Structure of Inositol-1-monophosphatase:
Amino acid sequence: MTEPLPINPLLALAVARDTAREAGRLIQSYARGELQVQTKGGDARDLVTIADTTADEMIQYNLSKAFPDFRIFSEETYTPGDLIQTDIPTWLVDPLDGTSNFTYGLPHYAVSIALWWQGEPWVGVVYDVRRDIMFYGTRGGGAWANDRRLVVSDRPLERAIICADWAREPVRRRAVAHAFADLVQVCHTARSFGSAALNFCYVAAGWLDAYFNLGLYPWDVGAGGLLVREAGGMLTDETGAPWTTAHRGAVATNGHIHEAILHTLARHLTDDHTP
């Protein structure tokens, strides 16, 4: 049984919300100038800018100052092999989710901050920088967008808007593309936006009916995944197992079409795609 978070979740939520908004202002200050774009590990699709790194530094400073005994697991300081310790409350941080969108001028990116403890999410904040929408929630406290409580849709597959984003690994990328192609034949329509954190929030809000991606990390799902569940939706890996921070694939839906999405993905998955 999961023990209660050792602090009041609402206190952690307040700090995370203030920090996410501050990070958003910092990111926007870079949007108006020329950006030097670099790649991570030689992967031309994995971009990083000064907006990512400076926002990350600010977020880590704020969180460490408020909660010096907690750990921080951030995209910008992660190295392969790093693990999330379940016995210490840990912040999962993506300072700029949607870096490719940001560098190309597409106004769709976010700050994502989550607090996990004993393998479970307790606090989730996703700040839609360009639209000034603060998505947030706590374990058992519901999911919200600004002052509006979020509830997933009840649409069936034939009326659904399906969303997917593309894993960087070629084999996983092809699997997503093939499943996406199958689903567009039977759903109402389909989208791909390029920010996993926001896509999870859009499922929670009922704006999307399903979202899947086979190339995610804990910081991509940590906050938005909590909001999906708090809004009444379902979150699993691509095989239907409950999503954990060890999984690369994630499927979030309104619940009504979850099995249909999993069934379609299964037709294109092999052992090469599974975690």
In short: The longest strand covers residues 120-128. The first helix runs from residue 9 to 31. The two ends are 26 Å apart (CA to CA). Helices lie at 9-31, 50-66, 99-104, 170-183, 196-205, 218-230, 258-266.
